[in-house]
Each structure stands twice: as structure tokens, then as C-alpha cells.
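lol ok so funny story. i was supposed to be doing the assay writeup but got distracted and ended up predicting the structure for this chain instead. priorities right. anyway since i did it might as well share w the group, maybe its usefull for someone
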Amino acid sequence: MVSVSRITSKAFKVLLVVAMSAMAVLFALSSKTAAAGDSWSQALSSLDSLYDSFIKLESEVKRDKQSLQTLRMQNNEKLKSVNEKLRTIGKPQISKLQEAANLTVKKHAPLLAQYAELGNQLAEANKRKDQKAAALLKLKHSRLKSSVEAARAEIKQKKQLLAAARKRAAVQVKSIKDMLGPVHKLKGQTREENKLISETGKRLGNASKRHRSAIKEGDAVSAAAELAAMYAELGKIHISQQRILSYENQNRKLLSHAMTQLKSYLRQV
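and the output, tada:
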């Protein structure tokens, strides 16, 4: 028979082992809770500086956005003005030369028609072998020849002046369009950056929703992580804005140069 003292001694040992195990578990849980508390406190502390950084960057983004809108509007207005004036290059001179050419053709039309008719009649007379009629027609036809040649020369000169004016205007228009080539290229790059801003803005919005949700749940660690993500996405937007500002400033210079050259063309007579 087993003595009571031995049972008691064995039970005590078991209880001691259980108690020590329980203390170990409690210590581990206490350590985890303390670590979690430290992480929460650290996250809460980092939120303050993160908010300051985010608000500062957000202010810069808003300011740059306003500057971009103003600069883009000015550039678009200047581009519109350049394109409108571009369509008028050489128009007054070409219009005058066209009118002069038309008047010259009209002025000499009766003479040329008469000369052509005499030529036809002379050909018919020769065909009929009517020497008398052919001789008379030949005299009349020859008498007009010098006047006809002078008329044709004048018409040719007027048309050559008109063609030269049109060619000169075409060259000038092309030179301005060549200047505007980089403007259109930069506009394409701006559109690409705006697409990036739009995509980044969506990610920023999603991070903002998660940030607000974490705050409602009292999860400082997640709130800080999402705010850091928001700051990173806003930084990408700011970089894209800086690129677009650079493009718009380049466009401003290009458009100013094109306008100056255009005005010099328009002043030419």
C-alpha cells in the first residue's frame, strides 16, 4: 500500500510543474502584450511626424496644381493664337496678287480670243487652199502677234508672282509648324504623366480609406503604415507634377519663339 506522504509528495511535484508551466505561459503572453504595446506607442508617435510631412507635401501638390492650371491655360491660349495667325500668313499679299492676275487675264482675254480665232480661221483657209483668205488672215494674225506675246508675258509674270507668294507662305507656315512640333510632343508626354497621376491618385485614395478604417479600429500600427503609403503615393504625384511643369515651361518658351517669328512674317509685305 502506497503511503499518504508519498501521494502528497507526488501530487505536489505535479502541481509545481503545472504552476511553473502556467507562469511561463503568462510571462510569454505578458512579453507579447508589452511588445505589442511598444509597437502601438511607436506607431502613434510616428503618426505625428507623418501627418506633418503629408500635410506639407499635400500643400505643395495643391500649389503646383494651381500653377500648372494657370500655365497650361496661358500656353493653350497662345497656341490657339499662333494657329489662328498661322492661317493668315501671306493671305493679304496672295489675295492682291490673285486679283491682279485675274484682272490681267480678263483684260487680255478679248485680244487672246481674237488671236486664237484668227488662227483657227487661218488653219481652215489653208485647209481649203484658199490663198486669198489665208493671206488676209495671215496679215491680221501676224499684226496681233507682238501684242499677244506682250499680253501672255504680262499674264505669266502675274501668275509667277502669285506662285512665288504662295510658295513663300508655304515655307513660312512649315517653319512655324516645325517650331510647334516639340510643343505637340511635350503635350503627349504631359498626357502620359497625367495618366500616371490618375493611376497614383486611385492608389492614394485606397490607402486613405484603409488609413481611416485603421483609425476607427484604434489600430495605430496599420494607420501609420497606410499614412506612410499615402505619403509615398503623393510623392509620386508631386514628381509627375514637376515633370509637367518642366514641359509647360518649355512649351512657353517654344510658343513665345514661334509667335515672335510669326509676327515677323506677318509684317512682311
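The helical segments are 4-86, 91-128, 131-216, 220-267. Confidence is low (pLDDT under 50) at residues 1-36.
back to the writeup now i swear
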